[in-house]
Each structure stands twice: as C-alpha cells, then as structure tokens.
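Title: [Solved] Actin-like ATPase domain-containing protein 3D structure

Original question kept below for reference.
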Amino acid sequence: MPRGVPNAKRDESAMRFTSFHVPLALNPKHMNSTYLKSESQTLWSRNAVRAHRSRVALDDTGAATPTETLTFWQTRRGSKVVVIHPGSRFLRIGRASDVTPLTIPNVIARKHNPPVPAPVYVEGISRPREDRKRSTPSVTAPSADEYAINLTSDDPFDAKVAAITVSLRDRMRFYKLRVTPNAAAIATSFNEQFKPEIIPETNDPYSVDWIYSSDEPYLVGESALRLANPEEMGYAVRWPIYGGNFNTRDYPSQQVLYNDLETIFRESLKQKGVEPSAYKDYSVVLVIPDYYDRLYVEALVRILLVDMGFKQLCAQQESLAATYGAGISNACVVDMGAVKTSIACVDDGMVIADTRMVLSMGGNDITEFLYVLLEKIGFPYRDLNLARSYDWNVMEDLKARICTLAEGDVALNLYDFYVRRPGKPTEKYGLRAYDEIILAPMCLFEPRVIEFEHKRAGMRFLTRAPDIADEMMEKKSDDKLPEKFQDKLPELYTQAMLISTQHLFPVEPPAINLEQVQTMIPSVVQTPATEDPSAALTPLPMSAATTTPVTPAGEEPPSATEGAKEEDVEMTDATAPATESAAPSASGVDDDASSENKAAEVAAPATDVDATSNAATGDPPIEIIDVDEVDGKQTAPPVGYLSEQQQQQQQHQQQEVAPHLQYRAQRAIDVSFEASKLPLDVAIFNSARAAGGDEKIRKYLQAVLVVGGTALVPGMAHALESRLQAIATPLVPNMEKVQIIPPPKDVDLRILVWKGAAVLGKMDGVADLWITAADWDVFGFRALKERCYYL
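Solution (posted by the thread starter after getting help):
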C-alpha cells in the first residue's frame, strides 16, 4: 500500500463490484442523537401501541360484535388460538379451548400423472437370510440351565436377536420367572397350520368403508388411507413429516411438500369449523421439536403466516409444552414418537439446550421388528406387506394389544387379529407367540437390530430461502468438521451428543501452529506421478488405539453402539451394570481413559491426508504403504529420492503432524447421527449428565417424564426405572431411586404435549412472544429469533 494512504476499513456492504463510494458508518459514540436508544423506538413497541389504539378506537365507536351474540365456545379463553402439533404419524390440531385435539393421520393422497410411483417401505430393521425367514428358531435352551441359550445359526440377524434374548433371560432369572421350554417350536407348529376364519361383513362392526373411485384432486387423513388401490386410481400417497423434519425422500421438490402440508392444515381446520376466511382472526401456537432444524421452522412459519394468513404466531418446543401439560417445572422429558425419540431437560420453563438428544428409533421400529420376529415363527397371515396401509394397521393393532415390557407377562399365549382388505371378506387369524411380545419393544434398549443407515437413505438437506441472510442463520462451527455439514446443518451437536460419542474421538494432541501444519502436509502426501508411492512415502506413525480392527470374512464389524452397551443389565447392587461402559463417569466429559471406554472406542481408519478436505472434495484418500512390507523386503528407492538426512528431517516433521492429521480425520464424523444410535436408557442418563454435576443428574433422574404414543407400552415405566437405576447407582454419589413421573389423571400421553401448548396459548405471558405477518415481512427469520428466546 502506498505511503500516506490510510488503512481504510474493508467494505462489507455487498457493493464491491461498483465504483460507487460507500461512506463508512458513523461512530455512535460521537453522535448526540437518541435514535433507537429506547425501547419505545423499536418496531415491536410501535406495533403494540398501534394495536392498542385500534382496540380503543373500536371500543369507542361500538362497531365490535356484542358479547351477547357470541356463542359459548367463542367467549372461552383460547377460543381464537389454534394449537398445531405436527408429528411423523399423526397431526394434532385444535383450538386452545378444546378438551382434546383433532388427531388425524398426517398423510395426503394427491392425483398424480402416470406413471404413479408405487408405495415403497423403507426397511429400518435387519432382516434374516432368505433361507431362514420361516424356519425353526435358532435359539435353543439346554436342559441344564433353562435361562441359557445356544445359538445354532450363523446368520448375523440371529446373533443380534440372541444378544437381546440373553438380556431378557438375565432379567427373568433375577425375578425368578420360569422359562417355557421349546416354546418357539410349539408356536411355530401352531401358526403354520392355522387356517383363517371368514367373517361376513354383516357380522363385522368395524368393517372399513373402502374408496374404490374418486374424482377429488386430493384426499387427506383417514380418507387417504381408505383408498382401495391408490396406484391404480392415480393417487400418490405421501407423508410430509418424518422424524421432526420434512420427508424429502418421497418428494421431488420442497415446494410440492409445502403445498401438501398446507393442504393438510386447511382440511384439518375445516373439520374443526375454522374456515379460511377466519384465519386472519386466529393466532397459532406451533409446537416444534426440541432439536429443530431452523429451515424446517422457517418453512412452517412461512406457511402459516404468509400463505394461510393467520393473525400471529408463537413457536414453542415439545419438552416445554410437555412440562406445562403435566403441571411441573423441572423434568427430563422423553418424547417417544413413531420415528424418533427426543430427550431434553427442562429447568423452570426453559429447555437446556445442551441436554437435547434425538434417537432415530420409535414406535415404527417396534412394529417392524415385531413383524420380523413373528415371521420367524410362521406368522399365519402370509401376504402381509408393510407398504400397504391396511397391512400396516394390522401390525399396529397387534403391537398395541400384545407388546409389553413386563417380564411377568411373557407366556405362550394365544392371540387373535383381524385382516380387513378391500374387496375381500374380513379374516380372523389366531397366533401363538412367546417372548416375541417383549423382544420387539426391547429394541429401544438394544438397538443393534436397527439399520440406521437405511432409515436416512435418500434424505436431502433443506435449501435456504432466498430472503434469509447468512448472518441470521447462526450455527455452531467447527473447523475440524466437513464443510458440507457446516453449510447445511443449522445445529450440529449438543453437549449430550458429544458425551455420547466421546469414545469415537481420540485424545486431542497439544496445540500446534496451523501454518506449520499446512506447510508440512504437501511434503507428506505429494508424490511424483512417475514414482512408486510404496517406495517414495514413509508411513505415518499410528497408535494402537487408532488402528482399524481386522474383521474376519463373513462377519459384520461392530457398530458404535454395540461396544457401548453389553447384553445384560443387572438390577442388583452387588453386580455393576454393563451399561457403565456406555455411560462414562459423571465427573467430567473428558473422563474416557478408563478401560471400559477404551474397549468401546470405534476409531475411523486413519489416513495420511486430512479427511476433512477429502470429504469436501470427494477425492479418494491416498494410501500409505510401508516400504518394509512391500513383497516382504525393502524396495530400492527411485531416482531423486531424498537423502538420509532429509529423510530423518521429514520423518521428524511427520511425527509432529501425524497426531493432528489423525485427530482431524477421526473428528470428521456426524456427531448427531452417531449419538442417535444409543440405547434409550443410556441416552437419558447422558442427557441428564449434560445438565451439570451430580446434583443435576439426581434432580432430573428423579423427575423423568415419558410422553408420546410409544410410552403406552405396558411396563415401560418400570423398564426405564430399573435400567436407569442400574446405570446411575454406581456412577452418581448418593443416588436415590429413579422416578418416572406418572401423567396427570385421565390425560392421554399422546396428547400431553398438545395440552401443554394449549395452556401456553391461553397464558397472559405469551402476549410478548407473538409475531405477526408484518413483523415477518420486515425481519424475516430474525423475528422468531428476537421473540423466541430459545431460537
């Protein structure tokens, strides 16, 4: 820069491609103006004053509707507030003054140009081999010990089920419950020989009124599920919500998804008597997930405020709404839905952000796992297809009636179920099952049978709306994570997720000059194209903890969660729980030097190049081959090879850089995805642990609130209490009894979150949290950020 030219501040006004001079902003310290220095000068205050003057003027003129002409429900508090709780399987919507919400399936069937895509069910549970789908069970009990099992199969699925069965048998041994010998073979022989009973339509009070023809452009809710053959009728059936986010797998574009979701909202409100012309008079309380995607929240707000034209909106998190519905102020809320299970701790009306966790498992996994287990023992209904809505309802009904987590209910019992198909009479089947009724819901505590990669296959990241500036979308950044995650995900991980995945990370080495690292990397990884890489490169030193374990042929590598939890959870004080390895000591986050955690470490393969750059560019990693291991002898160095002194100097540099390269390579993992594989009891303990010290852990484990439809499984409360007690007793000093808070009397756990949001919508304090369409037009997403203190 020439002498005498001042060092002007860099122009950040996005006008760098013009010659127009943009003057720098004035220093507010030197200004005598009072502009925007008081609360009354903000747009929020001016809007409130304008609304107050409008109400006063309306009262003076007497133009308002007389109170005498209003109906009873219109005069109730909250009658002009609509509460919307979108879920993966069901949408719950209604006025805040209603006792119960309208619950409809969150599905739409819309006319589609041929060819209509066939319904496809994404399998989330491991499947046995084709030759072992219908065979004698592979687990047998010897005569010496009725609780022991013998695995007589080499199928990986049978090995996973046997591991869950071991945990069940150990709990039955503790409760001194007898095991029925050869129960699986007895059930199989009965089911394979059973013939269904035909029920006439006149004798079936629950017969379904199927839709065989329709000219409607779309059908919503139950009507969409009553289509006899959607594919032949030209309807594409889709579910817009999946696991607390949009179902981008089944939609070609986001705008089509938004239109379907808006249509579901409009049709649901029609059933509640709210017409589109009255939207401008209604306020909306939107229930969002605890661990939310900001683009998901932004899209929902845009639909409700801009496209549908509601008066104002307030967004609240699920866990906070659940505590209001239960009438408590502090709790560890476990919301068990159809696709996901979310965990968060609430402290005096505030969700602690670092305690949030999301597990990629829920009621749908129990339903699918129950079907796979029943198929192993000769399920009598042979033509069941989970992609068809009526077949899925058969398994949902079976799950609701026979599944349990109480070990005392395990017996060789006879069950019946009905199959109602379009164009065919109702069929009544009989079924005998033994421990399948408890093994299915135990997948929440032993998630080794869940295929997490399959469940997120085909999902796409949401794209940002054009009117949202980058500075409005604040998110955590980490230079050790791939750039694609930093650009797409609004919130990468929480402290609870880091605690849950700390066994995947090596110990971070001491700080080093990054410029020195960048200058060292080319000398390590660059190789002339004409040279042999095996002879020209020296291998990076690798510790024993970061080497990749060798897996024999035909065996599956251990998952990140299998090392974090063993098969059995003993509830005796004399025996330490096996889950202690997955739940590290509560003294601190970095306390992973114990042998249990080291045994559970699953390190990614360490490479000589930065995995972060490779993940971002898509280039294959460069393999380092030891020259001493090529053909069992030393290979002659090529022409131009470094001298011995240069080799020693380069090796010294590599030894300094290698730990940092390995750390950055192994740090480049999806923390939130890996944390979603944890067992339910371990995840709850880690969530409470992220709230603070031992006192906080005791506080939240003694107030665990379980909500959601999956929480209705019989024995869920005792199963959680016993497993959490086994984890917390040896790790938390002075730990008393873990307590699962019972729900309020006569309140369904499935609507408890909606009830809490309705309570929030009727409170006077929510008046400061409303945002209007005018606010959204001025501020955009920043309006939510300024009015909702948790965004």
